């Protein structure tokens, strides 16, 4: 199983980034896919998730209206479109694949929001 995040970087406040998480080694469309983030000195927190075939979504209150999670089951990829970024969004962002008791994590990608 591999989950490889990409798309992180340095962006100014108010800017946008699109994260991608490419998955392999499992039946991607059956898994719930999530994005988490961890800022320095803080606990890892859920940002958003999207269910498998149905594509239902859920967002943390802190990102609702600014971030959009989506998935392309044909490409085995989940995305996180992040708009109106704020310094408080600075963190390492991780994708996670979940199915029953199975959980797989990516290695993370750094997002830094700073002027």
Biggest pleated sheet: 7 strands, mixed
Structural class: mainly beta
* Oligomer classification: single chain
Mean pLDDT: 97
Distance between the termini: 37 Å
Determine the strand fraction and express it as a percent band.
Answer: over 45%
Number of strands: 11
Number of helices: 0
Encode the helix/strand succession as letters: EEEEEEEEEEE
Summarize this structure as a short list of keywords or feature phrases:
115 residues
Overview of this protein structure:
The protein is mainly β. The chain is 0% helix and 54% strand. It contains no helices and eleven strands. The strands form two sheets. Strands 2, 4, 5, 6, 9, 10 and 11 form a seven-stranded mixed sheet that branches. A four-stranded antiparallel sheet has the order 1-3-8-7, with no helix packed on it. A hairpin with a 2-residue loop joins strand 9 and strand 10 (102-105). The mean pLDDT is 97.
Question: Would you kindly provide a brief summary of this structure?
Answer:
By secondary structure, this protein is an all-beta fold.
Indicate the topology.
Elements: E1 2-6, E2 9-11, E3 17-24, E4 32-38, E5 45-50, E6 57-59, E7 67-72, E8 77-82, E9 91-99, E10 102-105, E11 109-113
Parallel strand pairs: 2-11
Antiparallel strand pairs: 1-3, 3-8, 4-5, 4-9, 5-6, 7-8, 9-10, 9-11
């Amino acid at each position: 199983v591999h989950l490889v995040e990409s798309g992180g970087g340095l962006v100014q406040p108010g800017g946008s980034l699109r994260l991608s998480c490419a998955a392999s080694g499992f039946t991607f469309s059956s898994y719930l896919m999530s994005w988490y983030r961890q800022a320095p000195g803080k606990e890892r927190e859920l940002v958003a998730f999207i269910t498998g075939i149905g594509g239902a979504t859920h967002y943390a209150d802190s990102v609702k209206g600014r971030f959009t999670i989506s998935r392309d089951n044909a490409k085995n990829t989940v995305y996180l479109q992040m708009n109106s970024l704020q310094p408080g969004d600075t963190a390492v962002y991780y994708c996670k694949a979940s199915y029953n008791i199975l959980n797989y994590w990516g290695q993370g990608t750094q997002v830094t929001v700073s002027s």
